[in-house]
């Protein structure tokens, strides 16, 4: 039996019904005296009215409980695979709010998660029966053209940042979906369409603000708290809550040359060989991302997205070479809006997901065949390839916490589906197919880590694990921030 602890337990249900406007604890069972929650150790506890009300009153933002009208929407994650119910959701409006929430959670030893965009493939943005620190209200993106940076709130979505920078014909390196949260993307490394030209998102991070487990608000940069600045660039959310990111921006034409191409499924390996040659010998400006996908009828299709970052005429010439290979069934190449290309496709709905991924050094014939042969003919199944190399590879494996600089490609194997009861079946299909690619893997992308990879996290941090564990021990010795790609404090048994 788990032990039960009552915090400020002498509370009547009548008192619980009369709470301030920032907090709607709502109707409870008549016998209830407090709000049930769970600790870091998994113990059940009861949070009394006085402590919860005090927390609500000290926030600039809003505190939600399961009875609050906005609770259901706030607790939801991008993937419908997860249906977690936090006992408290602190919708923070500032770094001070985050500090207040962290201090409350530490005082009561609450299991705590941090939600930026909520795109966690492992569902760790929501702490079931714990506290969720929701940064969604901290979403501003302000461009400093003179300083050549964009200052971004910890809960900003990528689309907000892109719109702010592109207005000034500037850009920073972000992911590929405008609905993604900048926080989670950055802390794991940051893969996107501009990686080969300007590196990963972390390579463009120049400063940050972080709330530590003991409630300090710290400035991070190459000069201030450089150990933490190094650690958050690839070490995930292990070291605190990042409430602000400052990214370097680059001159950029918001209109870019590129588009989409498709070939008959039978030609996929021939086209993959040509793509490998083009990206190995071609300019950093060339982004080619092929994928195999299974449609609603269970039929596989082979396509790719291609962009050229730079002169439109040069891009047209480079991609015309690719269009002459094989017998493409579709060629749609033109000058297009980069913002439109980044945007989440219209009509996208919330679905269940499962994914595994791998980094490989080279896109060899063997790798392409392993990833694209014997794809399960299940609607929604996709294998995609994200090009790395270029500027990504020109950063040392220990210059940031992200060690996989030798990777030439990231390969994702995933499925999206509507009936969550089929999750075990689809998970098995993804894992089985991933097993074909794994012999060629040199690691994986923590941001795309689903359940099942946790046991391999230590080896995935590779040469940087020891230093990361030491920094973790210095700033979070109790592993308070554990709902992430978790690093144990140095000296703690795995």
Task: Explain what this protein looks like in three dimensions.
- The protein is of the alpha+beta class and 494 residues long.
- Helices cover 26% and strands 24% of the residues.
- It is built from 15 helices and 21 strands.
- The chain has helices spanning 13-16, 49-58, 71-75, 95-107, 158-166, 182-188, 195-198, 226-232, 268-281, 312-323, 338-342, 365-372, 423-437, 457-460, 465-475, and strands spanning 4-7, 35-38, 44-47, 62-64, 88-91, 112-115, 131-134, 141-144, 149-153, 170-171, 205-211, 217-221, 241-248, 250-251, 255-263, 286-294, 300-308, 330-337, 352-360, 381-387, 409-417.
- The strands form five sheets. The protein has a seven-stranded antiparallel beta sheet with strand order 18-15-17-16-20-21-19. Strands 8-9-13-11-12 form a five-stranded antiparallel beta sheet.
- A hairpin with a 4-residue loop joins strand 8 and strand 9.
- Helix 9 (268-281) crosses helix 12.
- The chain is globular, with a radius of gyration of 23 Å.
SSE topology:
Layout: E1 4-7, H1 13-16, E2 35-38, E3 44-47, H2 49-58, E4 62-64, H3 71-75, E5 88-91, H4 95-107, E6 112-115, E7 131-134, E8 141-144, E9 149-153, H5 158-166, E10 170-171, H6 182-188, H7 195-198, E11 205-211, E12 217-221, H8 226-232, E13 241-248, E14 250-251, E15 255-263, H9 268-281, E16 286-294, E17 300-308, H10 312-323, E18 330-337, H11 338-342, E19 352-360, H12 365-372, E20 381-387, E21 409-417, H13 423-437, H14 457-460, H15 465-475
Parallel strand pairs: 1-3, 5-7, 6-7
Antiparallel strand pairs: 2-3, 4-5, 8-9, 9-13, 10-14, 11-12, 11-13, 15-17, 15-18, 16-17, 16-20, 19-21, 20-21
């Amino acid at each position: 039996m788990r032990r039960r602890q009552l915090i400020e337990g002498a509370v009547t249900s009548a008192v619980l019904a009369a709470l301030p406007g920032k907090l709607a604890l709502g109707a409870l069972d008549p016998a209830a005296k407090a709000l049930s929650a769970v600790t870091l150790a998994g113990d059940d506890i009861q949070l009394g009215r006085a402590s919860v009300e005090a927390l609500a009153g000290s926030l600039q933002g809003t505190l939600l409980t399961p009875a609050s009208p906005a609770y259901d929407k706030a607790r939801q994650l991008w993937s419908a695979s997860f249906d977690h119910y936090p006992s408290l959701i602190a919708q923070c409006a500032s770094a001070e709010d985050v500090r207040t929430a962290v201090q409350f959670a530490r005082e009561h030893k609450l299991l705590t998660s941090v939600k930026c965009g909520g795109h966690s493939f492992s569902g760790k943005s929501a702490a079931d029966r714990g506290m969720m620190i929701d940064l969604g209200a901290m979403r501003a993106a302000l461009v400093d053209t003179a300083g050549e940076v964009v200052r971004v709130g910890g809960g900003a979505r990528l689309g907000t940042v892109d719109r702010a920078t592109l207005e000034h014909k500037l850009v920073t390196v972000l992911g590929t979906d405008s609905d993604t949260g900048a926080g989670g993307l950055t802390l794991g490394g940051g893969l996107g369409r501009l990686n080969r030209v300007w590196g990963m998102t972390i390579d463009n991070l120049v400063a940050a603000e972080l709330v530590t487990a003991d409630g300090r608000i710290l400035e991070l940069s190459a000069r201030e708290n450089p150990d933490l600045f190094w650690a958050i660039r690839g070490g995930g959310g292990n070291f605190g809550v990042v409430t602000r990111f400052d990214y370097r921006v680059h001159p950029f034409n918001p209109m870019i040359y590129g588009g989409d191409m498709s070939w008959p499924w039978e030609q996929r390996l021939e086209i993959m060989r040509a793509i490998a040659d083009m990206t190995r010998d071609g300019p950093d400006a060339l982004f080619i991302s092929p994928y195999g996908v299974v449609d609603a009828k269970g039929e596989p299709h082979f396509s790719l997205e291609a962009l050229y970052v730079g002169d439109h005429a040069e891009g047209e010439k480079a991609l015309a070479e690719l269009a002459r290979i094989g017998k493409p069934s579709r060629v749609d190449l033109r000058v297009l809006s980069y913002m439109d290309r980044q945007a989440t496709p219209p009509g996208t709905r919330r679905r269940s997901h499962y994914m595994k991924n791998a980094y490989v050094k080279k896109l060899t014939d063997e790798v392409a065949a392993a990833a694209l042969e014997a794809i399960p003919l299940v609607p929604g199944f996709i294998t995609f390839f994200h090009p790395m190399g270029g500027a990504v590879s020109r950063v040392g494996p220990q210059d940031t916490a992200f060690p996989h600089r030798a990777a030439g490609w990231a390969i994702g194997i995933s499925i999206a589906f509507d009936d969550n009861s089929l999750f075990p079946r689809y998970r098995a299909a993804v894992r089985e197919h991933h097993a074909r690619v794994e012999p060629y893997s040199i690691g994986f992308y923590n941001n795309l880590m689903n359940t099942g990879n946790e046991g391999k996290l230590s080896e995935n941090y590779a040469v940087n694990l020891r230093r990361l564990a030491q920094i973790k021990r210095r700033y979070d010795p109790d592993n308070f921030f554990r709902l992430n790609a978790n690093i144990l404090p140095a000296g703690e048994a795995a």
